[in-house]
Design goal:
The chain is built from eight helices and 20 strands. The protein is α/β, with parallel strands linked by helices. The chain has one domain. The N terminus is likely disordered.
Length: 394
């Protein structure tokens, strides 16, 4: 049975280590830069029928088993932009991917980005990311053929092109932009924030940055000079978290959420708490959008029923009240602690998928990395809209 693209990514990275993404092979002629003036070099582009133009219709299942359908419609004239960098998905055999859009890239934007089209214009560049093959090489004890600098350089070039050519409204003024990333994409955005945004003119255009599924080391609640978001109506800040089950907190060998050797704690911001007017450390319900296709589970298997007697035919499922979360700090780890409010008396499921499972064993050091974004999707979309309003009012 094959695992999902992300499950295999993490299984490989478990052995490869996070440094695999940053390794550079022996000196070779530098690849030519991409021309981001060509729209074919973008996975998602505003107004185009592409990977982000996908159905986000959702079946809502209440605790009593009653269902309703939530339809979805992209915004007709969004007032701000979103710039997204996708996680490791490429199954190409080389150390870095080429610029070909495959089913893997399409799958991940369906889960992590397309819903944002209800609020913003979305820009998602293709980039020559470090591939699964590069991670497998390290797993086998070989040097990584992946070039992290090439991957970052592509995203930097796409960002620069976007700022120069697309970051303008009808009135000619610069538009606010939300940066969104997950896993490898978040690592790339962390570097972009350091090198191209923090303290630079571009910082004035940043509504917020969603750095998800990757440890963001902070000092006194800041990443460089950029603060973590502390309230919903705050612009120019960072939302970041890594997620673990409440019943399975980060183990000693956790890959995420750890306080580093220099004492930098992992940042944790709970979007749902900010929207509720509470601190991120307070437990609040999540507005999750879980894949009805079994995203985060074993591919080829039908997902477990979301409720007894309920057949789901939409791409997504929402289970109000089933999941809640808070930011927790313990034993040197800071993370989003996710609770399943199971009730055996109601018809809904008492469990969710999202763990990385390899050979039948749950890799607890990865937590709920497979569904980091799905867990808070509704809250993230609502939060960036509040942040955009605060940005516009400044």
């Amino acid at each position: 049975m094959k695992t999902t693209w992300l499950a295999w990514t993490l299984a490989a990275a478990l052995t490869a280590g996070s440094g695999a993404l940053a390794q550079t092979p022996a000196a070779a002629p530098a690849p030519a830069p991409n021309d981001y003036g060509k729209t074919e070099n973008w996975l998602c582009w505003p107004g185009r029928q592409d990977a982000c133009a996908v159905d986000q219709t959702t079946t809502i299942v209440q605790a009593d088993g009653k269902t309703a359908t939530e339809t979805f419609k992209p915004a007709a004239a969004p007032a701000y932009d979103c710039f997204y960098v996708y996680p490791t998905v490429s199954a190409q055999p080389t150390g870095n991917s080429d610029m070909t859009v495959t089913a893997s890239e399409r799958m991940v934007v369906e889960q992590q980005l397309a819903r944002f089209t209800s609020k913003c214009r979305v820009f998602a560049p293709m980039y020559r990311q470090v591939t699964l093959a590069a991670l497998r090489a390290v797993m086998m004890g070989q040097p990584s053929p992946g070039d992290g600098a090439l991957a970052y350089g592509d995203v930097r070039d796409a960002w620069t092109w976007y700022l120069t050519h697309e970051n303008k409204g009808p009135d000619g003024k610069a538009r606010g932009v939300v940066l969104i990333g997950h896993s490898q994409g978040s690592r790339v955005l962390q570097t972009l924030l350091k090198q191209e945004i923090d303290g630079k003119p571009a910082q004035k255009r940043m509504i917020s940055a969603l750095i998800l599924g990757m440890t963001t080391p902070v000092v006194d609640g800041q990443y460089g000079s950029i603060p973590l978001c502390a309230k919903a109506d705050q612009a120019g800040c960072i939302v970041t978290y890594v997620s673990f089950r409440e019943t399975s907190p980060p183990p000693a060998n956790s890959r995420f959420g750890v306080t580093d050797a220099q004492g930098h704690a992992a940042g944790c911001v709970n979007p749902a708490a900010l929207l509720a007017g509470k601190a991120s450390t307070e437990e609040v319900p999540l507005r999750s959008y879980l894949s009805a296709k079994g995203f985060g589970a074993v591919s080829g298997q039908a997902p477990k029923p979301f409720a007894t007697g309920v057949t789901v035919t939409t791409p997504f499922v929402a289970l109000p009240g089933l999941l809640s979360a808070r930011c927790a700090s313990e034993r040197g780890f800071t993370y989003l602690s996710v609770k399943v409010n199971a009730d055996p008396a109601d018809p809904r499921t008492d469990e969710i998928t999202g763990d990385v499972v390899v050979g039948g064993a749950v890799l607890k050091d990865w937590g709920l990395h497979l569904i980091d974004v799905n867990l808070e999707m509704g809250d993230l979309v609502a939060l960036v809209d509040r942040q955009a309003a605060a940005y516009a009012a400044k």
